[in-house]
Amino acid sequence: MKRAPFSVIISFIKRGLNNMTKTTKQFNLLDLLKKFSVLGRTSSEGVTRRVYDSNWVAAQLKYADLAEKYGLNVFTDKMGNLYASTSNDPEQGPVIMTGSHMDTVVNGGKLDGTYGTLASLVSLGELVAEYGAPKVPIVAVSFSEEEGSRFETTFTGSKFLTNQFDDTVYNITDKENITFEDARKKALDELKSKIKMMHSKWKIAKYIELHIEQGPVLEKERIPIGIVTGITGQIRVLIQTHGIANHAGTTPMNMRDDAMRKAVSLMNDIYQELEQTSGLRYTIGKITATPNVANVVPNNVTFSLDMRHLDQSILNKVFDEISKLVERHDGKLTLTTNVKASKMNPHLKSVLEAAAQNKNLDYKCLPSGAGHDAQVVSYKFPTGMIFVPSINGISHSPLEKTEAKDLINGRETLKDALYKLAY
Amino acid sequence: MKRAPFSVIISFIKRGLNNMTKTTKQFNLLDLLKKFSVLGRTSSEGVTRRVYDSNWVAAQLKYADLAEKYGLNVFTDKMGNLYASTSNDPEQGPVIMTGSHMDTVVNGGKLDGTYGTLASLVSLGELVAEYGAPKVPIVAVSFSEEEGSRFETTFTGSKFLTNQFDDTVYNITDKENITFEDARKKALDELKSKIKMMHSKWKIAKYIELHIEQGPVLEKERIPIGIVTGITGQIRVLIQTHGIANHAGTTPMNMRDDAMRKAVSLMNDIYQELEQTSGLRYTIGKITATPNVANVVPNNVTFSLDMRHLDQSILNKVFDEISKLVERHDGKLTLTTNVKASKMNPHLKSVLEAAAQNKNLDYKCLPSGAGHDAQVVSYKFPTGMIFVPSINGISHSPLEKTEAKDLINGRETLKDALYKLAY
């Protein structure tokens, strides 16, 4: 897309955008992704950008700088969410919001979160450059935190914006024993010195998030665009079996109480139970035995079970069945994660489908098995979500990658949808 | 048992013991066990005495000192095995040997090895004090190493004595990167400065080892003496299943290659296969998953399988069956330990039974599921073994304990057997 400074200036004058600078610059999304990947780059070419750390501050300031260069109004809030808005008045009527998160997992990729964040800003910048101010204000957002990679809490940015934030989070400490509150204050001091603080919250009419799929479906089926139907609910539990530690050689079989034997039998029954339920995704990803020595009968085995389904009632039913199964096996179950399933807005879904069609892009409607800010926002506001393919389905890894043309296709689809909704 | 210094002196003169000092002292076994438990005591009241470390050197020197005080001839060899002998000539015809090992596991108890080592020395000292020199020379031994707690090698003391030592051991390094050879040399320099070095090896007529059971059988059945029938063969393998790591939420079930699911199915089949074989002891004690994260499908699961049986042909057959099973499950099996089953000598077994009867002690013939120096020696020479009860079957732990009266009963039974064999 060509830069159009003169037409932009004319368009600004025509539409009378409030307080927007009258010159704008355009940026290449792929270049931007490269530049942001340096902020927290790891030795293995991954990215570690944890909320409120120095790389995170640098990235949010860079985002603000870009937004200003696009001639947008820039705001931050108490959490350090960044907003690039066509409106200079946060109190103004409902806005169309689009974006993703700026933090990463430890040694993650350069696309998860950052792609949607930058693609939203670029799309908005281009729309304004081409068409001037929208009828409905558009706000691009760079959420402060989604991954939970620094503090044992997730989605704090979108939760704060949508009034789902729990104040106990302020006291959570990271590995260096720094509280969320102290880290937040220090980072906010840096942001506030350059960015306008907003003390109200945006009224959200609609939210659209663009993200990499982080799964293999689109790539395997060679489909460039995914339209998300809903985000699966997730229940994660830790299951323990107990026994008595004893010498593997000297303890007769009939005098043993073997936690591993119990665990294997229970895990086997869990798999058999869960494979009955269509649409369920289930994973035993983590296991530890104590004392975990080849010649000692284990006295404890602990394993995780992660279950996800688009239909919350089915997920709840499965959880009940597993609870009973664990009880029958004399095990112990602890619920560690419980995120409710969410449905994307049907109207927004059809807008996104039309946008893909408009761009001549094949698309597929599919659920998201991973959590996203869109999930948190969708509990409160109409939400839609676009996926682009992930090569080999890999994410949360330095190997995370998406073809350049797919990155562009995603941005084009988003831009088309935003235009339809706001202009 | 009373000290009898005068009769001992007379007895020495009558029997004409070569080079034995003419005054002897007697020691209390329980006191000695306490004193040796200080050499390597850990913060949790356990004992860590690894071969050739400073506590090990101190313990062997203390053993030598005791032996000298008993008026016995003391020798060491290239491995640092200590011998307390009624004969001053190692070239002299076959001897009756009795003892155990001086090293411990990391944070082990004060009885495993040390009990048999000290009880043998005390029994021999008392026999000589009471009855003078035996017809057949008796040698008490304190083997240098059995546990493998410093270097990845076990039984080096008894293997060296019985010509089963593998020279590649010299190059094995410990965690501080010190070679077995360097550690050995340094420790031997200290021993040699005080103890006579022998360059030949004892000709062994018979070997008897006294040890704690390290299992629950004798204590549960309230029987003070165990006569070991044989030591189980042990085959230990590592089994691996492979898959592809993927996101637990975004990867549909039909696109997964889940190493945990394969491992659970395989472990379940292994248990079902192994429970068919009577007399087999089998343990899955150790398991690790990679990357071992709750929301990632594991790409690798590795678990140990330890199998023991008194009958080597049955053990071999079971191993073959497991190998086939692992192959059918597309797993990978690596043999890590293969210790052949050994049978105790029937004549020595009957001598030990008679000794227990003579002491009015109830006894039970039982297999040993743990490895012992007696196992190594038995491949070459007639061997017998006595067990005393372990409270709760606990061993390799600071909680390892045996009632005082049981410790005394074991020593009395050994002493009686030695008398019958040598006088």
From TrEMBL, chains A, B:
Zn(2+) 1 binds at H101, D112, H211. Signal peptide: none annotated. Binds 2 Zn(2+) ions per subunit. One of its GO terms (molecular function) is hydrolase activity, acting on carbon-nitrogen (but not peptide) bonds, in linear amidines. Residues 230-331 form the Peptidase M20 dimerisation domain. Allantoate binds at R236, N295, R308. Its cofactor is Zn(2+). Keywords: Hydrolase, Metal-binding, Zinc. Belongs to the peptidase M20 family. This is Peptidase M20 dimerisation domain-containing protein. It comes from Liquorilactobacillus uvarum DSM 19971.
